[in-house]
Amino acid sequence: MWNISSTARWLLLLLYFCVGFTVYGQQTVRYELYVKDTLVNFAGKEKRAIAVNGEIPMPTLTFTEGDTAEIIVHNLLNESISLHWHGVWLPNKEDGVPHLTQQPIAAGTTHTYQFPIMQNGTYWYHSHSGLQEQIGMYGSMVFNKRQSDTTFRKGIDDLPSVSVVLSEWTNMNPHTVDRLLHTGNDWFSIKKNTVQSYAEAIAAKRFKTKLTNEWKRMEAMDVSDVYYEQFLINGHAEQQLSQFKPGDKVRLRIANGGASSYFWLTYAGKKMTVVATDGNDVEPVAVDKLIIGVSESYDIVVEIPAANTAYELLATAEDRTGSASLFLGKGIKQLTSRLPRLQYFEGMKMMNDMMKMNGDMNDMGMDMSLQKMDMNAVMYPEQQKSAEHASSPDATDEHAGHTDPHQGHDHHQHRSGTSTGKVTLNYNMLRATHSTLLDSTAPVKALHFELTGNMNRYVWSMDNHVLSESDKIQIKKGEILRITLYNNSMMRHPMHLHGFDFRVLNENGDYSPMKNVLDIMPMETNVIEFAASRDGDWFFHCHILYHMMAGMNRVFKVGDYENPLLPNPDRSYKMLQRESNMWHFMADNDFATNGNDGSAMLQNARWSVGTEWRLGYNDMHGYEVETHVGRYIGKMQWLMPFVGFDWRYRRLGMDEHETNIFGQTNKKDDRGAFSLGVMYTLPLLINLQAEVYHDGIVRFALMREDIPISRRVRAGFMVNTDREYMVDLRYILHKNMGIRTHYDSDMGFGVGLALNY
Amino acid sequence: MQQVHANDFFTFYFVYIMKLSAYIGIVAIMLLSHTTFAQIRNSKLVTVDINGNCGMCKSNIEKAGNKENEAAVIWNSKNGKASITFDGTKTNEDAILKRIALSGYDNERYLAPDEAYSALHDCCQYERSKKTEDTATADAEHTPEHKHEGRKIASNATDENHAAHSPASGLGKLITPYLEVKNALVEANKEEAVMAAKELSEALQALNSKKLPSIETAIWNTESKHLNQTLQAFQAAKSMDQQRQEFAKISSSFYKLLKADKASGALYYQFCPMYNDGKGAYWISEKSAIENPYYGSEMLSCGKTVDTL
């Protein structure tokens, strides 16, 4: 008896092992993922994060081409989740976009993803629900190439490989991050020291640059939006792989799982050889430096040159506020140079030249594409330094790029070969290992998208429409989709297509590389194409999490797919649209010695419902409330028509009345009035507000808030035709708090504590 | 009345001032004690090796490592040891040494990026101990053992080369007294320097009458005259500083002569870019290793070899 039960136990154990571990060969490989809340301390404070099987990043999932993946997701959170398999070709219902390809995986439930592995290379996976990707839901996926594969590359595919997931951490709740971005709070610039205030401009002898910048209605420029306390490689600020010996070559499978950070990669052991991108093999190309966009993947081969030394692979955030390191080898650590802080006023000057008065970008005839010309290079101090030493070919190269774009092209098109100059990777240097030509007989559908947006209200869109304003784009199955993208916004965008790889048309013609993420810099025009061979609803969006949540998305509806997981696709699509155009609430109040000044606002991409109040402490100072409901018009959203309701009560004394500059007298102390009006943003970011009330009284006002005087000091003013005026000065203590002093024509001088949410 | 009043006032004023100064004194003491004692809490002390060579290195290293209320680095240029005091709750040895390496200085745990090292001032470009390269080709040139041997051979050769230069014919006779002047300056010995200069001066006079076939007459005439004048000034110099000023001129003339003589031997023409408010100054040495005559022990290893004669 005992014997039998023991055998049974062994069998059970064996079964358990078979299930729990990967099994090679063309078989089903199963992973069980338990998604759970956790507390982490990445940057000095305990904060909430989401871990899968107790890990951040999520565990690396390994398959071999030909396997069938079965991934069982247990949602142990109190909120719904989803998992998207980034870059993977699969049936639409396995794609993991809630409301588009499946229902969200509800709290406490389990969902199974199952799909055949049809590719090989480096991929990754992440949550596609809300902002979960920011707090830990990202992980690496490796699809091994079969040894018998005809494309098996000796010396590359047989190297030891390591998955490297880059990410970033903020101690702030990501929903607060999102709200701060939408409410124009510049707390992140204060943290990053990139306010670019007037005082700093004057100190840098850039007053005119700053003035021109504001004249063109631009706020402080930056290459990224969010301040992060920590950058991470595989969940660590610093990691060491000491198993490698001198002379070893290592393939690093690097995926950028950051929510909004691009990373520069540099290596202390000299050149890195790029061998694949987004899971697709490319001809090896040796570079000194490469930028990995949000959600891109690059496979690089590096060598450990000497013994007793660990060489640093440095991933520096594009805004250079921080970095993370991976040391390869054992022994004393050989560091690589840090990238110095950006010279923002140089960037501002460049932007001034590139920005037209109407908010369009002007590339000055440079035909920019494929990352060949990095305009941000004007801000790189290391480039300026090396330019002084005219000997550095890199510097001359970059400079040629600026003054004569065509020459710049030629320089950059040189493939790796130059041993003297420093080589920076760009998309034109990527060449597929086999012809990627599409079927020439298939019908071609050409689409054109202009990437649009504005920083002032943090609205990001395509052709000036957010997802909630766009229908699905119908594509016939088998059609070739040729998409021209033009970035007419001030930020770069990593555009990601679900379910397909696309060709990035470059000088390699038939051998143009395949990717599924395209980084597109401001003013660039790029063309991508792919055969829409799998039916279903495929998401196409900017992979900067906060841009995606702001509505920079489209859906390609290929063929007529019936998704068994979505019984009511139309209703689900409405949910998706709603989730990418959420309302943001903001409020502030100044508790001052002479009264309370404050406002509350609810806004989405287009609409604004706002109330402002000025409440005195006595009847003579009065009480005033203005409410406006308006809609922002145009790409730059400088115009907002609105309807309003004003109410005020005050007692000025016997027969004392105010007269406005048009001679109109307002006789009532207790007045309620409806109005129609417009708000328009003038150069220098001054708002002009014009309104006419139902009783015929007209009012014009000029106002500006948040004039950056110094890093933490903001000034503001208001003047109107009721002969009222106000000036204020505020010192920002905290993202939600400041000390404000103001003078108001009604209420006099006041000092107070200004709180904002 | 009035006077009494005034007196009262002054008395009061005096007492007041005394009190005030007492307060100020107490506050000052408190502040001082704060800065001296309370600066780094939870302090830990470690001693580590950091490469570097001169006074400028010292300030670079300390500046890179120091952080208010967190870490204080004191680096000794003689033995390359740094004592680091730091607040163990705020930082660690690694972070401090990393900062120091990023500013260009190799240390126990981190090697500086090449760019950071080459961006250092010439005088700070200490001898780097190269990584043990694995590839055979690099081995020969880069391993530290080889380098050291190389230097030894060179300095041995120098002694022989003294002989090579010194045959009764010509400039060779000036070399030994010149090097004595230089070494006296390295040791900061003013008297010895004067004696050596006198010797050099006499040797120069003795040469004057003889023919130096290998040197163009024009060069000989200008430089030997110049050399003679500066040597007189050197001997008359009242301070070591003045001696060094003259020595810079002597060295430059002597170098021109040696260069014109075309006689080859292991002499090193070396340069300290810091001397004379950054104008720099040269000297000739029998050793490739730097022993700076312009600062003495203060900054003995500031400099680099720019030419070999």
Question: Count of DSSP E strands of chain A?
Answer: 45
**What radius of gyration of chain B results from the CA coordinates?**
28 Å
Count of domains of chain B: 2
**Net shape of chain A:** globular
**Which stretches of chain A are low in confidence, meaning pLDDT under 50 for 5 or more residues running?**
17-24, 387-420
What is the name of the CATH class of the domain at 584-756 in chain A?
Answer: Mainly Beta
> So what's the CATH class of the largest domain in chain B?
Mainly Alpha
The strand line-up of the biggest sheet of chain A is 32-33-34-35-36-39-40-41-42-43-44-45
Biggest interface between chains: A-B, 15 and 16 residues
Indicate the mean pLDDT of chain B: 75
Which residues of chain B sit in consecutive blocks of at least 5 with pLDDT less than 50? 33-38, 133-168
Helix content of chain A: 10-25%
Largest β-sheet summary of chain A: 12 strands, antiparallel, barrel
Strand content of chain A: 35-45%
Distance N terminus to C terminus of chain B?
A: 92 Å
Task: Give the helix/strand class of chain B.
Answer: mainly alpha
* Portion in strands of chain B: 5-15%
CATH architectural name of the domain at 584-756 in chain A: Beta Barrel
List keywords for this structure.
heterodimer, A: 757 residues, mainly beta, Immunoglobulin-like, six-stranded mixed sheet, 11 helices, 45 strands, 14% helix, B: 309 residues, mainly alpha, Alpha-Beta Plaits, Four Helix Bundle (Hemerythrin (Met), subunit A), three-stranded antiparallel sheet, 7 strands, 55% helix
What would your notes on this structure say?
The complex is a heterodimer of chains A (757) and B (309). With 757 residues, chain A is mainly beta. Among the domains of chain A are: 20-148, Cupredoxins -  blue copper proteins (Immunoglobulin-like), CATH 2.60.40.420; 230-334, Cupredoxins -  blue copper proteins (Immunoglobulin-like, Sandwich), CATH 2.60.40.420; 444-561, Cupredoxins -  blue copper proteins (Immunoglobulin-like), CATH 2.60.40.420; 584-756, Porin (Beta Barrel), CATH 2.40.160. Chain A contains 11 helices and 45 strands. In chain A, the strands form 8 sheets. In chain A, strands 32-33-34-35-36-39-40-41-42-43-44-45 form a 12-stranded antiparallel β-barrel. A 6-stranded mixed β-sheet of chain A has the order 10-9-12-17-14-15, with no helix packed on it. The longest helix of chain A is centred in the first third of the chain and has 19 residues, at 2-20. Chain A is globular, with a radius of gyration of 29 Å. The model of chain A is unreliable at 17-24 and 387-420 (pLDDT under 50). By secondary structure, chain B is mainly α. Chain B folds into 2 domains: 43-124, Alpha-Beta Plaits (2-Layer Sandwich); 154-308, Four Helix Bundle (Hemerythrin (Met), subunit A), CATH 1.20.120. Chain B is built from 11 helices and 7 strands. Chain B has helices spanning 2-37, 55-65, 93-102, 114-118, 136-142, 144-165, 172-186, 190-208, 217-236, 240-261, 275-278; strands at residues 43-49, 71-76, 81-87, 110-111, 268-272, 281-285, 304-308. In chain B, strands 1-3-2 form a 3-stranded antiparallel β-sheet. Chain B has a 3-stranded antiparallel β-sheet with strand order 6-5-7. In chain B, strand 2 and strand 3 (81-87) form a beta hairpin. Chain B is flat. Mean pLDDT of chain B is 75; it is low at 33-38 and 133-168. The chains are: A mainly beta (757), B mainly alpha (309). At the A-B interface, strand 20 of A face helix 3 and strand 4 of B. Strand 20 of chain A pairs parallel with strand 4 of chain B.
